[in-house]
Automatic annotation (TrEMBL):
Pfam family, one: PAP2
Listed InterPro entries: PAP2/HPO, PAP2/HPO_sf
Protein name: PAP2 superfamily protein
Upper classification of the organism: Archaea, Methanobacteriati, Methanobacteriota, Stenosarchaea group, Halobacteria
Residue intervals passing through the bilayer: 20-46, 58-80, 100-119, 126-145, 151-168, 173-191, 197-214, 226-245, 251-270
Record keywords: Membrane, Transmembrane, Transmembrane helix
SMART domains hit by this protein: acidPPc
Gene3D superfamilies associated with the record: Phosphatidic acid phosphatase type 2/haloperoxidase (1.20.144.10)
UniProt domain Phosphatidic acid phosphatase type 2/haloperoxidase: residue ranges: 59-166
The keyword Transmembrane belongs to this UniProt entry's keyword annotation: yes
Length: 275
């Protein structure tokens, strides 16, 4: 599969003027792990306050999002296919290339958002979501960091997973978090204890623990203070992201991501922040 369409990527990436590369870098961030894992918790915590979606649907969106990211780690580890050659890339990227994590993550998050939002008409939401997914996927090819088949596979896998996860969480949200943990466990088995796989296992396990805490204390609809909660989310999420940036030991990556997942989801059950 290594020769899976370099001609298309080379043609598209080579046609992008240097002046537009910076714009594409900004746009491609809409599908990055950091963006979707930040937007998910904020939608979960504040979506009801803003009239966008209720807490339960926010939890479904969060479960779908982290499950989709765990799926990316699993599939990349299973296929272990390289990216296009450096001579084609317009920015530096490393790691496996198939499927595209940005395309998968964008598909999972924006499709889930379109399905669960309580504002606007359903056709319009899906149209906007599809537009964002296509935009993010295009940037990956235009930046020369993925083959066309990589982004098509990412969109396909993401779409299939969203359908499965939304169906699984229709009656009980916890099934979505359990599915995410199962995928993360599979990722560790298939890819080994890589930083990404360990982070996925930690984050999904923490999120499951947080949801169990919220439901056990019957705080699903509990409001949280915007300023205090935002500060906590940014602090804990930043600490987890830092362990990835400095390539910390697996134990540190796991622990910080467990903490981040637990805090993101469990905040409504913590009275110091909810009252």
């Amino acid at each position: 599969m290594s020769a899976r369409g370099v001609g298309v990527t080379e043609l598209v990436a080579g046609s992008v003027p240097d002046a537009l590369v910076a714009v594409l870098v900004v746009l491609t961030a809409l599908g990055s792990t950091y963006v979707v894992t930040s937007a998910g918790p904020f939608a979960y915590l504040f979506g009801e306050r803003l009239g966008l979606l209720d807490r339960r649907d926010g939890a479904r969106l969060l479960a779908v999002t982290i499950g989709g990211l765990a799926l990316v780690v699993l599939l990349k580890g299973a296929f272990a296919e390289p990216r296009p050659p450096e001579s084609v890339m317009r920015i530096a990227e490393d790691g496996n290339g198939f499927p595209s994590g940005h395309a998968t993550g964008a598909t999972v998050f924006y499709s889930g958002l379109a399905a669960l939002l309580a504002v606007g008409s359903r056709p319009r939401r899906y149209l906007v979501g599809a537009g964002l997914i296509v935009l993010v996927s295009f940037t990956r090819v235009a930046l020369g960091v993925h083959y066309l088949v990589d982004v098509l596979a990412g969109m396909t896998a993401g779409t299939a997973f969203v359908g499965l996860a939304l169906a699984a969480t229709r009656r009980r949200v916890v099934y979505g978090f359990l599915l995410a943990v199962a995928l993360a466990v599979a990722a560790v088995v298939v890819a080994g204890p890589t930083v990404d796989a360990v982070a996925a296992l930690g984050g999904t396990s923490g999120a499951l623990a947080g949801w169990l805490l919220v439901t056990e204390r019957e705080r699903v609809t509990e409001a949280v203070r915007p300023v205090a909660s935002t500060g906590v989310v940014l602090a804990v999420g930043g600490a987890a992201a830092a362990t990835l940036a400095v390539e910390a030991a697996a134990a540190a990556v796991f622990a910080t991501h467990v903490a981040a997942g637990t805090v993101f989801v469990g905040l409504p059950a913590v009275q110091n922040f909810s009252r």
